[in-house]
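In practice, a research group might receive sequence data for several interacting partners and want a quick structural hypothesis before committing to experiments. The following worked case mirrors that situation: the sequences arrive first, and a predicted assembly follows.
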Amino acid sequence: MFIKVLGAAAGGGYPQWNCNHPNSRLARLKTSNAVPRTQSSIAVSSDKKKWFIFNASPDLRQQLWDNPELMPSPDDPLRYSPIMGVILTNADVDHTAGLINLRESQKFNLYATNRVLDVIGKNSIFNVLNPKFVKKLPIKLANILELNDTEDNFSGISIKPFSVPGKVALWLEDESKGKNFGSVEEDTIALEVTGANNKKFFYIPACASIPEWLLTKLDNSELVFFDGTLWQDDEMIKQNVGIKTGKRMGHISMSGEEGSIEILNKINIKRKVFIHINTTNPALLEDSNERKIAKENGWEIAYDTMEIKL
Amino acid sequence: MFIKVLGAAAGGGYPQWNCNHPNSRLARLKTSNAVPRTQSSIAVSSDKKKWFIFNASPDLRQQLWDNPELMPSPDDPLRYSPIMGVILTNADVDHTAGLINLRESQKFNLYATNRVLDVIGKNSIFNVLNPKFVKKLPIKLANILELNDTEDNFSGISIKPFSVPGKVALWLEDESKGKNFGSVEEDTIALEVTGANNKKFFYIPACASIPEWLLTKLDNSELVFFDGTLWQDDEMIKQNVGIKTGKRMGHISMSGEEGSIEILNKINIKRKVFIHINTTNPALLEDSNERKIAKENGWEIAYDTMEIKL
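A structural hypothesis for the assembly, expressed as tokens:
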């Protein structure tokens, strides 16, 4: 199974368009310790010919350009795409808006929970996905789903979705519905992904906390992509670039006693990769102390075009 | 007045994600005669400090990266953008989806006809534009509108919108409404843009035909950006990459007796630039015969980062 990181940054990318925080500034100055990243997405394939995209980032068109295996090859038909399907783990703009790039008359399968499919259906801008060509297939929690190519042949890759602690997408928050803004189980899912060779990995780009059952689930796994949005829960407030904590946004922080580094140190994971990293997170900088701490604890910081073979 | 072409290609960009037409193939092979282009947009400024974006393409994040003057400078505040406003000329996905990139808590003015603002309002995904920060300002046909910066000071740039022959956006077509799919005047507008120095140009990225009144209007103008979607009305059908003519899509073709080159030859325009160019248009290729013909008739083919001072 082949995994490519299409985008390693959180919503808005690194740097964010209106952010002048030192991290973003360094990326614009093109210093070697601050590598820009597009928005959160990975691609998965059994054969490097047929690909499934996990989350469709607004940067998708640029990501295809940066990953030529996701575009037609010279010998392909006049209209063709190696993208067989798109799987959404929530309705966040940084995970769904990219669908708009997959416009018009091209077959592919769109997988998401009914909750997320419903939101897509209600936004007429997604009518650019012609229903004659794009099959919308609901993901059911805890059920194993075999990913088929556009000819309905099994790709070798299957996913088992499960709900993780999280929050409804920002643009769908309903303040009248109390502290959790009307969030339900199907709003934030994670995936256990199994390849034809029976190798498995976990994809968890958004997660608000790590309960005991999740620790048990991840123990002894080979590879985990995990929510790396913030280093500190209040880093955006402290640095005057935002008014929200990680907890408010549905993201656990990397550092601290309740942070993902400390908690996931309790179990055994062979390879740990942070993904969905916010423009303010100091672990983005190659030479930061925070990067060093993450590394010492066995973590890698995902970057665009990173490739992992499992 | 400074004008920058952010994106010169039509919807889907050049090359389009699922297109394997020889034009698209050449772009992917990175041959020097086939320069990739992002989706249709220009930026206009009086001082190169405060900018207005005309049409928000899905490639906007990449376009800001390619045009650093549109991103914060090191001395700007922690949250800042030189983008003071966005003007939409229709609701096409390639002209509106980019708004999603201008997310959260950043002041700017959004100008469009009520018809287009209404469509944006009905798609909840655009809630990422926080109404506390983004002012929606209706454009009225034939009225001169002064573009203000986010502090409500006049930028020196004003626009005079007028309706041109066209069609409602593809994703909003209503087949029950007959041959024009329910299109109304406010669906496709063009802009006469005047700078502080009283210089003017026309921006017409979509136009289905050139009636006599439009010829009169454009006569003796200094600069016109004009719809360059297709070379031939039926080129997508002939080349087996689509089923629609230019006329069906609301775009006049460049060539032929009824094409824009021939018709606009009847009047005097100092500088003529084709923009919104489809991935199938042979004029995209630097060494094509069609490029030569366009050039001989006084036309330039817009490219990303092209800069014009007026």
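Before designing any experiment, note the following. The first strand of chain A starts at residue 2 and ends at 7. The two ends of chain A are 5 Å apart (CA to CA).
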